[in-house]
């Protein structure tokens, strides 16, 4: 029996792509000193702040506990401040986040050029499909 999940299983192919993309993205975001997820969390706050941990988790598609742990690390770095209110936490950028965000945005731009060069016209279609299918699975 030969399994066909290598090419037909949405879970397997998405996870395999994610592992490959994550390894490549790690190289592009290395100047930040952190994994790409930390940059995306900071850039989400750059777009709109303050946000609650729950809002960040929902916007980024991360688990609430993962968002909280990342925010804690970023707070220890002096980039943001968490304000606890019972079981809720609100996160806001601090002035020291500026240089990190400048670097993160440069990394994102370089990553975008790399993926456009590698994926060509497939990039926009793939991103649209991933976004649409993510929304379907979340419902």
From TrEMBL:
Q: Which Pfam families does the UniProt entry name for this protein?
A: HTH_IclR
Q: Which SUPFAM superfamilies match?
A: Winged helix' DNA-binding domain (SSF46785)
HTH iclR-type domain segment(s): 45-81
Spell out the protein name for this chain. Helix-turn-helix domain-containing protein
Question: From what organism does this protein derive?
Answer: Levilactobacillus lanxiensis
């Amino acid at each position: 029996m030969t399994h066909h999940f290598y090419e037909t299983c949405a879970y397997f192919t998405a996870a395999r792509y994610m592992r490959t993309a994550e390894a490549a993205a790690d190289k592009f975001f290395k100047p930040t000193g952190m994994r790409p997820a930390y940059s995306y969390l900071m850039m989400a706050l750059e777009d709109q702040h303050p946000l609650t941990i729950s809002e960040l988790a929902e916007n980024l598609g991360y688990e609430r506990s993962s968002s909280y742990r990342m925010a804690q690390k970023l707070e220890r770095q002096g980039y943001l401040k968490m304000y606890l209110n019972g079981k809720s936490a609100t996160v806001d950028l601090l002035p020291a986040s500026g240089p990190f965000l400048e670097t993160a945005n440069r990394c994102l731009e370089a990553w975008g050029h790399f993926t456009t060069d590698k994926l060509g016209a497939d990039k926009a279609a793939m991103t649209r499909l991933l976004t649409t299918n993510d929304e379907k699975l979340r419902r």
